[in-house]
Amino acid sequence: MNEALLERFVELISARTGLQIREQDKGSLANKIWMRLKLLRLSRAEDYYQVLAGNIAEGHSWEQKREKEWRELTHLLTTGESYFFRDKGQINLLSNRILPEIIEAKNQQAKTQNNQKRSLRIWSAGCSTGEEPYSLAIVLREILPDWEDWDILILGTDINQKSIEKAKEGIYSSWSFRLVENQLQMRYFYPRQTEWQIDDQIRKMVTFSYGNLVKDDYPNDRSIVSNMDLIICRNVFVYFDYKAIALVLKKFYNTLVPGGYLLTGHTELYNQELSCFQVMVFPESVIYKRNSEIKQLKTATTPTNYSEDLPFAQQKSGLNSKQIESKESDLLNIYIPPNSRSYSSLKSPRSSNKKLEKSPDSFSELPIYQTNYSVLPLANQEEKIVSKFAKANLQGKSLPTSSNHSVPHHDILMHAEKLFHKKDYTEAIKQAEQLITLHPRSFGAYYLLAEAYANLGDYNKATYYCQQAIELDSLSVLPYYLLAHIAEEKGELEKAKVFLKRIIYLAPSSISAYLDLAFIYKKEENTARAIKMLATAVELLKKLPSSARVERQGEVTAGQLLVELQKMFKQHI
């Protein structure tokens, strides 16, 4: 197959499914195409392309098989993995905040409509093998005592037909329950040989069907894909190109009822037009609420997910309007819930040990935050501060090893980190993988895997393990720092800024995040915003003791860093 034809396949697949075939995946795509050629007994790849494109003459036998063939190819291209209660932070946000608000609104609405039967409509778009919609059904059973009095629709759709068939069966291996408490598993599942069957009542709460988010026509009053109170589409857009995301986002908006919610994976709507949504930032996740008034989405040309001037961070740092300009009127207004928790002064396990040897003569010479993550050394063990969730995992737990000895979880993790420190990344990865096998909820192990793969230059695996760590502890800023550095390494500066701003929303006193943003803005020759970020860092440093260590800045003290930043800041104010 020549390169031109392969590129035509890539474009056709993207137009049909939204799936973006990366450059490094084209070889795999070619192999899968040849696999289908052999099974269909076609001699040329061009013939297979014509089948998929629908260019066969009307009445030809292939015309009837085209849709089926697309489903077979899609199955080869999508091998999504899921599990119950994925991303505990987002699940907690749904069960403790979003769903109770929707339920309360429905109760109030029923009172004004002569106690008409209350309805609740939820769509899990890209549901894979069904763990997500079943998890939502279990959540509703837990928080809604009178659920049987409601008209509840939980819809799960996926482009992979075989995944839908498995979802309908409702039978899962133990691996799907790695984040599920035993008591909950025993309550809603029953053993079936070596696997687990979901309770019939829960299974009847969920409807599954094949769905193509790009090609399907929705909302559609003649189908059930309309008037949704909540749409969840997580870890789907990471496989889509920008135009496909924009198209599906517009359909989602029109499918939601006014005031309905959209929940996606973390940072998946980067650079999309969101002016018709109220963007609500919680420590656990960002969620998007459809505005009550009717609007039409437009194609975005600039990122609008996050305010460039970070008004929330400005409020937290105490900066006045003379130090930081107010937000431009054309930027999205982000709602920060007043009771959202924030965590400041989090220290990274891998911090830079660079020291200030001399005062920089200009902005471009400032070395403090120009860090290349692939060379960041491991910090001293006593300096390590892990997230609250990871600490809970490390306390008092003993795990068996291959030598039949009982070794505490933190000892295994510490050994892996020592290997990491010695730059023996391959062995560190093996140790971390062993730890995950024994203890699937180990934030530290997933984060160490992400760092090791980043240092080996395998950014795809590093990104994957960062996402796994975020799902275990959505409040930790550590994976976002690594994702930001990976984005910088790849030259994706806009994406890096999104990650850094996420850090600031989670931990408004993250001085290093402001410094990283300043460096990026300087690199983009946006000196005005670079100075704003520096001004914020200066104000935050003033609140620290002079001898305090600054997170991710190694041996440099707050006093030393403040002196150097003030010198540089005065040169540009």
The gyration radius over C-alpha positions equals 25 Å
- Span of the ends, CA to CA: 59 Å
Uncertain regions: pLDDT < 50 for 5+ in a row?
296-407
- The assembly state of the depicted protein chains is single chain
Instruction: Give the biggest sheet.
Output: 8 strands, mixed
* Beta strands, count: 13
Strand content: 5-15%
Q: What structural class do helix, strand and pairing data support?
A: alpha/beta
Average of the residue pLDDT scores: 76
What topology, given as strand order, has the largest sheet?
6-2-1-7-8-10-9-11
Overall shape: it is globular
Continuous helix count: 21
Percentage of helical residues?
A: 40-55%
Structure overview:
With 573 residues, the protein is an alpha/beta fold. Helices cover 47% and strands 11% of the residues. The protein has helices spanning 3-17, 26-40, 45-53, 61-77, 88-112, 131-143, 161-169, 182-188, 200-204, 242-255, 311-317, 388-394, 409-421, 425-438, 443-455, 459-472, 478-489, 493-506, 511-523, 527-542, 558-572, and strands at 119-125, 151-158, 171-172, 189-192, 195-198, 206-210, 228-233, 256-264, 277-281, 286-290, 334-335, 398-400, 406-408. Residues 296-407 have low confidence and may be disordered.
Brief summary:
The chain is α/β, with parallel strands linked by helices and 573 residues long. The chain is 47% helix and 11% strand. Helix 13 (409-421) packs antiparallel against helix 14 and helix 18 (493-506) packs antiparallel against helix 19 (511-523).
Note the main attributes of this structure.
573 residues; alpha/beta; three-stranded antiparallel sheet; globular
